[in-house]
Amino acid sequence: MRPGRRHLLLSLAAGALFVVALALGDQFLDSFQLRVSSLCAIYVVLALSLNLVNGFTGLFSLGHAGFMAVGAYTCALLTMTPEQKEMNFFLAPVVPWLAHLSIPFLPALVAAGLVAALIGFLVGAPALRLKDDYLAIATLGFAEIIRVVLTNTQTLTNGALGLKGLPMYATTWVVWPCAALSVAFMVFLTRSSYGRAMKAVRDDEIAAGAMGVDVFRVKVVSFTVSSFMAGVGGALLGHLLTTIDPKMFTFMLTFNILLVVVLGGIGSITGSVIAAIGVTILMEVLRFLDGPLNFGLFETEARPGLRMVVFSLLLMAVVLFRQRGLMGNREFSWSMFSRAGLARREDGRA
Questions:
Q1: What CA–CA distance (Å, rounded) separates 134 from 262?
Q2: Which residues is 244 bridged to in the sheet?
Q3: CB 312: neighbour CB atoms within 10 A?
Q4: Has residue 185 been placed in a domain?
C-alpha cells in the first residue's frame, strides 16, 4: 500500500478513535473531569491562536486576553435571553438594540470571532509597524485598555459586575470539535503558500520582502486570523464557566497561554496540543498547593497562587535548558513510525 493512502487510513482510524473517546468520556466522566477536559480543548484553541502569531509569523504579541474578552462578551450578549439580560443589568438597563436580541450559539460563536478579528485588524494595522518588545508592549496595552473599557461601559457589558448565568453551551461535543477544526486549519494553513510566506517573514523579513512577499500584509492577516481564534476561545471559555467579568481577562491569562506555547515548542502545532492538555491537567492536579499543606511535623498556611510558582520554575527550566520546547518546530507524522522514520530518529540520537 502506498504511504499516502496508508497515512490517510491511519488518520481516519485515529479520528474514529477520537470520537469514540469523546463518547466514552462524555458518558463515564464526572462533571469536574468533563470541565477539565473541556478546558483542555479550549486551551488547545487559544495556544494555537497565539502560536500562529508568535511561532509561525515571529510576532511577539501579549494582547490575546483582550481578544478573548471581546469574543466572550460578544457571544454572551448575543446568546442571553431578554430575561437574563434584565436580571444582569439591574443597575442600568442594557442598550436598547441588545435588549431583545438573542441568536443561537453557533452563529454567535462565529460572530464573536469576527468581532475579535475586526478589533485585531484595527489594532494590528498600526501596531504591527512596531517590532519585538515595542509590539509586545503595544499589544499588552491594548489588552489593558479593553479591560478598562469593559469595566466602565455599564449599559453594554454590565461593568465590573460582569455577566452571570450564561447558557452552558460549551459541552464536550462543542469544544473538542472546535479544537479539532483549529488543528486542521493550522495544518492546512502552514502547509499552504501563505503559511510558507509567514515562516519566511518569521525567519528573515528583509529576505522575504526581497523575494516578493508583502511582509506587512502577511503580518496583518496572521494577526487578524489569530484574533479570530482567540475570540472563539474566549467565547467557549465564557460559556463553559457560565460567568464572565473583566477581571478574568488580565495578563495572567495571556501568560498561561504563552506558557503552553513555550513549553510545547514555538512553531509546533503538535507541541501546542500536547502542552495545552498537559498544563491544563497539571493546573488542576497541583491545585492543592494553593491550600494549607500538612507535612506531618508542621503545617503551612494557604498560599493562593503557589502552584503558578511551579509553572514559572518549569518555564525558566525550559528557557535555560531546552529553548525549543517539547517539540521544537517538529510535527507529528505517521512517517515517524515507519522504518525510515525510526532510522532517521536513531541517526539523530547518534
A1: 20
A2: 163
A3: 12
A4: yes
